[in-house]
Amino acid sequence: MPSKFSNLLALVLVGVNWITHAEALGITNWLTLCEDEATLQYLDSRYPGHAVPASAFLGKRIGKGSALHEYGTAAFSEITCARPAYLQVVLRAGFNVLWSDMDTAWLTNFLDLAPSSRDVVMVDDSMEEHEENSGNICTGLMYFTPTDMVKSVLEEWHRVCMEDGSNDQTAWNKIFNAERRKKLQYHIMTKELYPNGHLLETRRYSRNDTLSAWRPAWVHANYRVGYHNKRQFLIDSSVWQGGNESDKPSCEVPDQ
Ligand SMILES: [Mn+2]
């Protein structure tokens, strides 16, 4: 039976799946943020120049050990609340920044579809028919422009996330729904193009189903936890290009 740690390391194959799809779309200007040493080494050896340790963004190590990946733990909160801090580094340097979870497969380049000249472009994570009404933004895909408004929102996002001990998505929706919605220039992508993982499952989506008129721009393996569940969902959706079990990291790098 594979160890728990081995299954955590195997999540890197879900990341490899994302990278394979992005490269197939001709996207080259991506960085993957690595929150543990084993993942960093594995991805750096295969995609030199693209793998960056989280500490390079934050100036310190955060979290420790396998608790990093366990939803609901304090270490997970620390990691998930770090997201606005990562984004701030890029925005302060004057660049637009697009965040994508790696438990996704891009079938179209988001930047070919997203409107420009918005503070933020987002996707919805609800089962509501109209994405504008849900109040449940998915923080797994967000595109920011470095405006003063955005920088101040991200500061608030980080503070509220840490204060509430919640996760990045709960904190984002709390501030977005409360007040920011009125001030931000935002756009929410249509659910037909950016459905969540639950909706995909409900519709039994498969990319190989040539009879289906439905052509989502991404597949997001959310609404399920862990390597095996996410990988199986991506296989069922006919978008798995993350390689075989035997490709997963074999050496376990202990935490410093
Ligand atoms: Mn995700």
TrEMBL record:
The keyword Flavoprotein does not apply. This is G6649 protein. InterPro entries: Nucl-diP-sugar_transferase (IPR005069), UDP-D-xylose:L-fucose_XylT (IPR052636). Keywords: Signal. The lineage of its organism: Eukaryota, Viridiplantae, Chlorophyta, core chlorophytes, Trebouxiophyceae. Residues 27-234 form the Nucleotide-diphospho-sugar transferase domain. Pfam families: Nucleotid_trans. Residues 1-24 form the signal peptide. The keyword Cytoplasm does not apply.
